[in-house]
Amino acid sequence: MNTDNTKSQMRKGMLEYCIMLLLRHQPCYANDIIQRLHEARMIVMEGTLYPLLSRLKRDGLLGYEWRESTQGPPRKYYVLTSEGQQALAQLDASWEEIERTVNFLKNE
Amino acid sequence: MNTDNTKSQMRKGMLEYCIMLLLRHQPCYANDIIQRLHEARMIVMEGTLYPLLSRLKRDGLLGYEWRESTQGPPRKYYVLTSEGQQALAQLDASWEEIERTVNFLKNE
DNA sequence: TACAATACCTTGTATCGCAAGGTACTAACA
DNA sequence: TGTTAGTACCTTGCGATACAAGGTATTGTA
Fold first, then answer.
1. For burial by CB atoms within 10 Å, which of A6, A11, A12, A65 has the most?
2. Min Cα separation A83/chain B (Å)
3. Which one of B7, B23, B48 makes the best mutation probe of the A interface by having the most chain A beta carbons within 10 Å?
4. Considering CB atoms only, which of A9, A25, A101 is closest to B40?
5. What does DSSP assign to residue B81?
6. What's the CA gap between A32 and B15, in Å, rounded?
7. Looking at chain B from residue 42 to 81, which residues have their Cβ under 8 Å from any Cβ of chain A?
8. How confident is the model over B71-91, as pLDDT tens digits?
9. CA dist A54 → A62, A84, B15, B46 (Å)
10. How confident is the model over A65-84, as pLDDT tens digits?
């Protein structure tokens, strides 16, 4: 079997949550996010990240601002909006529910 | 926003894992699974479950046997194969990794 | 025989992650 | 000035999957 596939499926829905967790404390641009998620042992591809950020922006959960870079083109720094913070609180609850579900099933 | 969507996305990849957790101790047929997952606060639709079970069967992780019912047509009871148990062990590890990732990001 | 209940399965749609490829801006250097 | 390398943003095509809706088959009962 390819548990790889299942594994990536498991991470699928978590991505959005993890990214919003990342942005909770500080603005980040795409490469920041990729790198910091990598440190947290979650791999994200560019082709995944950019559409996701656009989606969250479109839904009003994220905003962004352009910032100059010391080398290279300017960067789009994403920030959690207040609506995004509310959504994040709900996702916290969802995560806890999933955690409860899995632990319930594991301890049966 | 519809955190409902995100929430269902979060649960998406977990389904396979949860079902295999369910089957670890005892054979179940579809309605058993739906009901017991419901008790664990995870909602699954029939149209989701049947293809998923077929997929796991096709991949050799599940087997099944027909059993008579006291009322109604016979039922297909699914069982974890030994290959399925190995896969489940890997999914346990994947789950723990995700748990670590989320907690890491939450405590930053 | 007709009907309701139960159980299994399929089809069409939407969403999402990912691989690959494309565009644009900046800096360094010949 | 022209070229090249590096960085950053974005899009397209594909495969996988959950879900809603609808379909088929078996059983028991009136």
1. A6
2. 9
3. B7
4. A101
5. -
6. 31
7. 42, 59-61
8. 889 999 999 999 999 999 999
9. 9, 13, 27, 33
10. 999 988 889 999 999 999 99
